[in-house]
Recover the amino acids of this structure.
């Protein structure tokens, strides 16, 4: 029996169907990025309007019997998470399906790990709201331990804010990448503390340079500095944990420059690294369904105990597989 | 030359320097990053590390003696001993607490001295402490810097707190209080940092 997964933590409303680890459908719709970023109530309205259509498309394309539904419990934007939660609860009670609350970060990690067929990778999870370096540890319970993470904002969010300040259109990371083509490097604040890092000093510096330096130089240097910070922390974690596999996941994992830098690191240390297709790194429903399917082997959840948690930490979850 | 350790930042080679046992810490080219940034980081960090090591000499903290500094390489004394991180790992298998406990107060005192002269270690973890001939040596000043910020000092403590059991951490803090005059407000700051939403539930380090 198949599992339906609903993702709605940020700008994307995604629905996927999975059976025995195989992705049967993966449909999504994304809130159009404006120069104002994500306004929580507007994004939630957008999701509510489109929910029905996307769910229907995913179910029709998969055309299998479904016995469970998973949804994103967090972390994410509260009003957006609520739409997914409500949709899952409605489907669960109407069709009498089992319901599973899924951690968003865990879903990103697990889909990348499964597509790569890795058993014990080091993970660089980079998205709008999050930037973490994780790996599975057994103690005090089996979980993804956070070895390093951002002390302020996620790398995706940082690039988005810069894109808005620089009036790039659409205002997000890939526009910064486009603007960076042919740029020359100028020194910018570089902050790595062990395996943790901070981005706001770098962001402020880049924003103050707008107007006084050519845009391509600022965009190039901002991207290059931020990614080098992530890579240094990742390399340090690789050395410390001695892991032989590396995955990158999350929305910012779509960046080709970041992937290129990690390929260089993985070659130097002979570490297995194969970035997965962008479709599965961007927020999607299939990743939620994959984790929910795994949770079917554990306990059942009542509708009442299913909620949302905007700050749901991945390292608080006991891994049962 | 034999590579004894390979970190993310530098490779460590065993060397002989005028018959003395030495190590050479070399920051090699990182091909993943922009060349200008790479040159800047390697040169700046080598210079900075040497400067801090010189600054801390004679202040009562056992650390490797600086022998020679090149553009990307630092030669220093070879400290023969066992890393505190390895001792902690062994302890998990054969609980012999006392062995490690007796070094905690001393370790705390050394960090206190550093902070009292506004030197932040930047990576103060058991992997960067070597027990040699019954003494604790502080090593790897690659991420160190000079700062009088209470927050910077508190973050040094946070790294140790994450790596140690509660009992060991308290012994460590006892030593720290003896040498750091502002330990009170630094420990208060640490509480505040730990309360910041994102990190409240971050699990303790399992790797150090």
């Amino acid at each position: 029996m198949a599992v339906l997964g609903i993702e709605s933590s940020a700008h994307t409303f995604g629905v996927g169907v999975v059976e025995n680890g195989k992705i049967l459908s993966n449909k999504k719709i994304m809130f159009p990025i404006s120069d104002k970023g994500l306004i929580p109530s507007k994004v939630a309205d957008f999701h509510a309007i489109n929910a029905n259509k996307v769910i229907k498309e995913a179910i029709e394309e998969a055309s299998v019997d479904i016995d469970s539904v998973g949804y994103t419990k967090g972390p994410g934007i509260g009003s957006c998470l609520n739409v997914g939660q409500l949709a899952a609860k409605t489907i669960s009670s109407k069709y009498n399906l089992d319901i599973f609350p899924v951690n968003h970060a865990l879903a990103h990690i697990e889909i990348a790990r499964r597509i790569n067929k890795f058993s014990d990778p080091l993970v660089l999870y980079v998205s709008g709201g999050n930037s973490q370096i994780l790996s599975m540890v057994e103690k005090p319970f089996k979980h993804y331990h956070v070895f390093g993470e951002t002390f302020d904002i996620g790398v995706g969010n940082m690039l988005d804010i810069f894109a808005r300040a620089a009036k790039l259109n659409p205002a997000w990371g890939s526009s910064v990448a486009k603007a960076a083509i042919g740029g020359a490097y100028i020194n910018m604040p570089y902050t790595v503390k062990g395996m943790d890092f901070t981005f706001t000093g770098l962001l402020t510096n880049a924003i103050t340079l707008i107007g006084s330096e050519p845009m391509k130089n600022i965009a190039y240097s901002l991207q290059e500095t931020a990614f080098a910070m992530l890579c240094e922390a990742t390399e340090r974690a690789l050395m410390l944990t001695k892991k032989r596999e590396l995955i990158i996941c999350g929305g910012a994992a779509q960046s080709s420059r970041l992937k290129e830098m990690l390929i260089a690191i993985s070659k130097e240390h002979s570490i297995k690294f194969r970035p997965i297709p962008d479709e599965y790194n961007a927020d999607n429903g299939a990743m939620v369904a994959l984790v929910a399917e795994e949770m079917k082997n554990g306990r059942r959840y009542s509708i009442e105990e299913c909620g949302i948690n905007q700050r749901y930490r991945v390292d608080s979850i006991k891994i049962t597989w | 030359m034999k590579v004894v350790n390979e970190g993310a930042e530098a490779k460590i080679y065993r060397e002989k320097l005028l018959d003395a046992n030495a190590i050479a810490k070399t920051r090699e080219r990182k091909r993943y990053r922009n060349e200008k940034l790479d040159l800047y980081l390697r040169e700046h960090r080598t210079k900075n590390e040497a400067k801090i090591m010189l600054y801390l000499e004679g202040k009562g903290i056992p650390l490797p003696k600086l022998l020679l500094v090149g553009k990307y390489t630092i030669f220093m004394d070879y400290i023969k001993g066992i890393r505190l991180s390895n001792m902690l790992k062994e302890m998990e298998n054969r609980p012999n607490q006392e062995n490690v406990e007796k070094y905690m107060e001393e370790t705390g005192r050394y960090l206190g001295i550093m902070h009292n002269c506004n030197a932040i270690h930047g990576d103060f973890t058991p992997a960067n402490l070597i027990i040699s001939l019954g003494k604790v040596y502080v090593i790897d000043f690659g991420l160190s810097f000079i700062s009088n910020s209470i927050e910077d000092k508190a973050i040094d403590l946070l790294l140790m707190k994450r790596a140690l059991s509660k009992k060991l951490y308290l012994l460590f803090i006892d030593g720290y209080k003896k040498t750091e005059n502002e330990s009170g407000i630094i420990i208060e700051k640490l509480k505040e940092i730990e309360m910041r939403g994102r990190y409240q539930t971050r699990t303790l380090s399992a790797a150090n």
In short: Chain A has a mean pLDDT of 95.
